[in-house]
Amino acid sequence: MLQGRWWSWGFRSAVMIYFMVLIVLPILGIYGQSLSAGWSAFIDNITEPLAWKAVFLTVKLAIIAAVINILVGTMSAWVLIRYRFPGRRLLNSLVDLPFALPTAVAGLMILLLLGPQSFVGEWADKFGFAILFHEPAIVIAMIFVTFPFVIRAVQPLLEEMDSSEEEAAYTLGATKARTFLRVIMPGMLPGIASGAMLAFSRALAEFGAVVLVAGNIPGKTLIASVYIFGEIESDNAAGATAVSVLLLTFSFIILWLVNYVQMRRKGV
Question: Are 106 and 142 in contact (CB under 8 A)?
Fold first, then answer.
């Protein structure tokens, strides 16, 4: 009994130490470093024009990517669960590819796909539409790395959904569109909301895929993560940590909202 208690205590202590060293202490270090020169210096760093433009651009494009993920991800989850077709299992397994693929490789793939020598790049040039090294390329990179979140959040809800409710709606004379909006959609909303928030949070922090396709033009295509990297290389740790704190705070808020949505779904 005593050995069991000591083993349990040691196991919990090891987990807590691991959590503290790898998560809590680095977070506290970022907040502490950002405020090391005082509140006035912190405010100056986050209101510096290039920093603010980088954060605003990142949030704007992350929202656009999240909205597209909501639409495409929900439709993809619906097709993968409700339809049977050749290659469905392969397609379902490919959904997780952005999780396994290094983001720099993803950026290189997008660079080759949208480059001036590619079919898409040549087609865009003919119509005078710039993709590479402009905002559309950043959105595409963000969508690629965050694509699985909405799909994987919605799929379990569709699998758990009781088909008798749909059948009852059809029996009462409801159309397919009305049944979808009044019966199916409410059950999918928690997954859509949590998946979209996770996709948004992940897009805020993306670096590897974006840095290769954005052009990183200050005030135009320079996003927050690349700005932080540039400040570190310029030996301005205070400026880098100030912007990092903004992104970290956004992530904390989103994480709380995701947990809140999940708890509401479970009725806690």
Answer: no
Instruction: Tell me: pLDDT of 2 over 50.
Output: no
Helix (H) and strand (E) counts for the chain? 15, 0
Using only C-alpha atoms, what is the Rg of the chain? 23
Give the SS3 label for residue 44: helix
CA distance 141 to 118: 17
Q: Residue holding tokens 């999918």?
A: 188
Residue 143 sits at the vertex; the CA angle it makes with 139 and 145, to the nearest 5 degrees, is 120
Torsion sign, CA atoms 233, 238, 243, 245: positive
Q: Which of 195, 167, 197 is nearest to 183 (CA)?
A: 167
Backbone angles phi, psi at 20, to 5 degrees: -65, -45
Q: Is the pLDDT of residue 80 over 80?
A: yes
- 3-state DSSP call for residue 71? helix
Q: Please tell me the distance from the alpha carbon of residue 34 to that of residue 12, in angstroms, as a whole number.
A: 32
Helices 49-82 + 135-160 axis angle, to 10:
40
Q: Give the pLDDT band of residue 49 (cuts 50, 70, 90).
A: confident
- Report the pLDDT value the prediction gives residue 150, as an integer from 0 to 100: 93
Q: What is the pLDDT of residue 267?
A: 59
Residue for token pair 């409700």: 82
Q: Which of 106, 112, 135, 145 is nearest to 222 (CA)?
A: 135
SS3 state of residue 116:
coil
Can you give the pLDDT at residue 107? 86
Question: 15: Cβ–Cβ under 8 A, 6 or more apart, which residues?
Answer: none
